[in-house]
Amino acid sequence: MPPVLERNWLGRRVTLRRVVDRSVDGRPLFGDVVGDLVTLTARTAVLHGRDGVVQVVLATIVAAKLAPPSTADELALEAVAARGWRPEHTAAIGGWLLRAASGFTGRANSVLPLRAPGLQLDDALAGARYWYTERGLPLRMQVPYEARRLLDAGLAERGWPADVDVAVLAARLDALRSVEHPGEPPVDLRAAPGPEWFARYRGGAGLAQPARDLLTRHDRAGFASVTLDGHVVAIGRGAVDDGWLGVTAVEVAPELRRRGLASAVMRALWSWGSAMGAERSYVQVSSANTGAAELYRRLDDVRGEGEALFWIGTFHQVVRGDSGLALPIFERSYDLAAQAGDKLTLSYAARHLGFAQGEAGRLDAAREKLEESVQLRREIGFAPGVAAGLLALAELAHRAGRRDEARGLLDEADAVAVVSSAHGIRRWITEARAELDQPR
User: Fold this and answer.
1) For residue 222, what is the domain's CATH number?
2) Which residue range(s) make up the domain with 114?
């Protein structure tokens, strides 16, 4: 854990331990502060936390680390994102939000489990299935994976196939580059889109009435477009809820991609969102969307590019089962995360590089990467991730025939999981122990 702040942490949430006073016998008394790092000078750091703005003198800081989002943070952002993409019909089963919009887009036609349903899982699923059947739709679940691991495991046990992963990327607007770049085309922003905007969305699918209704069913939405030679060639949509700008529907004519048009649209929406009172922005990106990484590269966002590439690699490794194709993508993600000082993404990239090495039979190389991932997660205080990493190392040790080492790693993983309330990981540990105890 570094004793000082790093400039590439600007815009990210950090935890600082600082000297706040001294006891009567001269011993230092410490206090912690958590918040978004918004300003960093040679002498002070300014954090924006839940209780407002806090200025900290650097000389008083004794420890600093990045603060990964909590489960509560993840679910709160999911709730905000749901308000930014409003379906025609909604209902609730306890803490499950049921949404339907004539089948247009997965997000608007799926269950979002923000809290427990208040029923046994099978009963909740039966109730949700009936609600969707009444509307002529299949039952689909949008599961925030990190926050709902037990539900994810329960659905898998019942034979539910996993769909493409979606990464939710977030940042403070004041940390993003929102100024226009020379040579960028002008971007038009309106409260309501015209026919050409709808025609550009999803290859014309936006012209259908359910799509029109879904896109415009918001009282604080803005629609960006770039027009060249009389034709709309790039679009994007922004929606502001609870201080967050949600960016969706960013599309560019295929023949004009990788020319900076998406970057221009994003910057225009960031500026519009700031004017509307938003302080942060989020975007939901499919792991199969290779264009997302290219967009972050053009925006000179090394951290965003590294994170996007990690999810692309995960899609190829986990969904398609192609670690050979995923390997160079993870390696590039690893390099970019190291360059940006993003230890969380670095730990994920190292972990999946370890998986790839293990699949190729290179067990020593796999162990090295998995150990690196665990160490990175210890440094940033990501305890559930440490438990998951120790579990992976235990499985690798078991595979290599080191059963006693595997048992020790599982014991350590379980202890970390208990302290961090990582109940889903404890379940996996129990399964790994049962497998380890089987006769040879």
Assistant:
1) 3.40.630.30
2) 71-163
